TrEMBL record:
This is Uncharacterized protein. The chain crosses the membrane at residues 59-82, 94-117. The keyword Transmembrane helix applies. Keywords: Membrane, Transmembrane, Transmembrane helix.
């Protein structure tokens, strides 16, 4: 049945069962009704891979550590500028005041940037592995 309108054509097909749909559209072997093959994202499930014994830190751990380090570094700069005691313990007249804040500020910002970079790398690696499991790569 074809319905004509001024702007477009609308075609309506009446199919008899799933076989007609399979003939119209090429389905992968795992998607056919009688197939026992699992989909690409489920192929590795149920198998214990003993060769993968190394633990990789998830990306959100790197990201959280980066945020905490950046907050500590910026906070150290504010404490130095405002002449507040470090963590309420080391007073401004202490010999350790400037070196301690300088250590947090000068090492914290590059460390935070490095941890953020590692977070992006880990997230990209996890995404690539998921794409491989899904059959996209």
């Amino acid at each position: 049945m074809i319905i004509k309108s001024k702007r477009s054509f609308l075609c309506v097909l009446q199919l008899k069962g799933l076989q007609s749909l399979v003939n119209l559209k090429k389905l992968p072997t795992w998607a056919k009704p009688d197939s026992d093959e699992p989909p690409p994202w489920a192929k590795g499930e149920g198998k214990e891979n003993s060769s993968k014994q190394n633990f990789e830190v998830p990306f959100f751990v790197y990201l959280l550590a980066s945020a905490i380090t950046a907050i500590a570094a910026i906070g150290s700069i504010f404490e130095y500028v405002n002449q507040r005691p470090v963590f309420g313990i080391v007073n401004t007249d202490s010999i350790l005041y400037a070196p301690l804040l300088g250590f947090f500020a000068f090492t914290g910002i590059p460390t935070s940037a490095f941890l953020w970079f590692k977070s992006v790398q880990a997230a990209n690696k996890e995404a690539d592995e998921q794409d491989k499991r899904d059959g996209y790569l």
